[in-house]
Design brief:
Blueprint lengths: L11 H14 L13 H8 L3 H14 L2 E4 L3 E4 L5 H4 L18 H5 L34 H15 L13 H14 L9 E4 L2 H12 L5 E6 L3 H9 L3 E8 L2 E2 L12 E4 L13 H13 L3 E5 L24 E6 L11 E4 L5 H11 L5 H12 L2 H28 L3 E4 L6 E6 L5 H11 L4 E2 L12 E5 L5 H28 L1
Parallel strand pairs: 4-5, 4-7, 7-8, 8-9
Antiparallel strand pairs: 1-2, 3-10, 5-6, 9-10, 11-12, 12-14, 13-14
Helix pairs in contact: 1-3, 2-3, 6-12, 7-12, 8-9, 8-11, 13-15, 14-15
Bound molecules: pyridoxal-5'-phosphate.
The site of pyridoxal-5'-phosphate has 13 residues, from helix 8.
Length: 499
């Protein structure tokens, strides 16, 4: 029985379509009664216009519920579309409980999970959690501009953006990035050397798989971005952790230390310690890589956010021997959910990288790539970076001032020249476990520096993120932390006195 509600927000033709479809699915139409009344009769019966009826019927036709017999009228299809889409329910069998055989590869990936289910993506800064390291201010992302540009590229390129596309990446995007990197990161590259990837992790995985065989060695910074270790483990690479000093990664090695085929570094701003690699160390590292036929993987994840003086040129820009694989990401500049990054490969590696990408997942979304190309060429990228740098600089200064005022008795801040994080060293090492516990209880969640360490035995410290929170939120979080620590001290003293 069809009942149309003229007060509903659902258009009349949609209501009609839905209700006729449900009637058909209910199976009440027999072969004999499968002829539909004409659109004129339906319109008169239901008190709607013929165009409303035609719209509903044409949708039912398009989806395969109706068929036309020229000269005879419209009939219910012999088999409704559901019969081609809905699998029959299988017989249920008693489940057999036996542990699944898991590959060594899975076991090799370091696993510091938060709960029972493995899902690192869901353990970031949720509501009510603050001061988490490495989180950019995504609420400042210009969604309206992005949406407008996306609509424009879709209108212009249409179905071309819906097909499988280049494994190298959108050519307009590669051109725009080459210009940006040469102008602002002092890189020396052409668009032909750029491969668009799904973020830094994929850049690392592709690079490692292209230049190392399983069982070969990579040096990585220690402490290090935790995903580097996980990605290289996935590729079956032997990891040698290398210490960080005031100039960056330490190159000197003990005689028994394996020579690397690849060296992973974050020269602009070491993660998580914040050291900017000195010019001397950069040239030493390039000399070392050249002498030992190794590649350097330069992770330039947040070089755009410098607060003190001009940046040093990228390693890629001072490499004259094709040793540096440079990689960038939009995760910090724009937002991590886009999953877009780029590799600038030495010319002789480009093809191998593209081959790996083609076997991995083909390419990133052409729609988002084309939108990003527009975002860059129309100047939004640079103006967003400038705006965010200013916001981050203000938040950083505010964080430092408030932190020193409220928590200066317990921590010494190590203020880096760049980036979205600040390391706070404990003044009393024995406070570490207590602070770790309290921060997790109150939702102010810096990471323990030890989380990023492999062999490095550093003094206890926490890595605070400041970028994603407003001044009010920063102040409120630091006050909450300071008062939780004061309460802890009070309870401790009270406990001592009453004993
Ligand atoms: C050192 C470093 N590299 C890269 C990234 C970002 O990687 P992705 O592009 O995979 O999001 C991060 C994020 O925190 C990072 O700390």
């Amino acid at each position: 029985m069809i009942r149309l509600d003229r007060t509903a927000t659902e258009p009349l033709h949609e209501q009609l379509y839905r209700q006729i479809r449900d009637e058909l699915k209910s199976g009440r139409f027999s072969e004999g009664s499968s002829r539909l009344p004409s659109s004129r009769i339906l319109a008169t019966d239901r008190g709607v216009s013929r165009s409303t009826v035609r719209l509903a019927l044409s949708k039912l036709h398009a989806e395969g519920y109706l068929r036309s017999k020229p000269g005879s009228g419209t009939f219910v299809a012999n088999l409704l579309p559901e019969s081609f889409l809905t699998a029959g329910q299988p017989k249920t069998y008693e489940p057999i409980q036996r542990p699944a055989r898991i590959s060594d590869r899975v076991r090799a990936i370091p696993d510091k999970r938060a709960g029972n289910q493995f899902d690192l993506g869901a353990t970031g800064a949720g509501p009510g959690v603050s001061l988490v390291a490495s989180i950019p201010a995504v609420d400042e992302f210009p969604i309206a501009v992005w949406e407008r540009l996306r609509a424009q590229v879709l209108a212009k390129k249409g179905v071309n953006l819906l097909r499988y596309s280049s494994n190298r990446g959108d050519v307009e995007l590669r051109k725009a990035l080459a210009v940006y990197l040469c102008d602002f990161r002092a890189a020396r590259c052409s668009a032909d050397q750029i491969v668009i990837v799904a973020g830094m992790q994929q850049a690392m995985l592709i690079s490692a798989m292209a230049v190392l065989n399983p069982g070969e060695t990579a040096w990585i910074e220690d402490p290090c971005y935790q995903q580097t270790r996980r990605v290289l483990s996935l590729a079956g690479i032997k990891i040698v952790p290398k210490a960080i000093d005031t100039q960056g990664i330490v190159i000197a090695r003990s005689p028994k230390e394996l020579l690397p085929r690849m060296i992973y570094v974050t020269p602009s701003h070491q993660f998580p310690l914040g050291v900017t690699m000195s010019f001397q160390r950069r040239t030493d590292l390039l000399d070392f890589a050249r002498a030992h036929n190794a590649f350097i993987f330069e992770d330039d994840y947040d070089a755009e956010f410098r607060f003190v003086g001009p940046p040093l040129p990228s390693l890629q820009g001072i490499d004259n021997a094709g040793r540096v694989i440079y990689a960038g990401t939009v995760s910090k500049i724009l937002c991590p959910s886009l999953r877009l990054g780029y590799i600038v490969a030495p010319e002789q590696l480009v093809d191998s990288f593209v081959k790996i990408r083609s076997a991995m997942d083909q390419h990133s979304s052409p729609i988002e790539q084309a939108t990003l190309a527009r975002f860059i060429t129309e100047g939004f990228f640079l103006s967003h970076i400038k705006r965010m740098r200013k916001i981050y600089a203000e938040r950083r200064d505010f964080f430092i001032k408030q932190f020193n005022e409220l928590l200066g008795d317990r921590f010494t801040l190590q203020v880096p020249e760049a980036g979205l994080n600040i390391v706070a060293w404990l003044k009393r090492e024995e406070d570490f476990e207590m602070i770790k516990h309290i921060t997790s209880e109150i939702g102010v969640r810096p990471s323990a520096l030890s989380f990023f360490c492999i062999q490095a035995n550093l003094k206890p410290a926490f890595v605070f993120g400041f970028a994603a929170w407003t001044r009010t939120q920063i102040r409120e979080s630091l006050v909450r932390l300071a008062s939780a620590l004061r309460n802890y001290d009070k309870n401790l003293n009270y406990g001592r006195q009453s004993r």
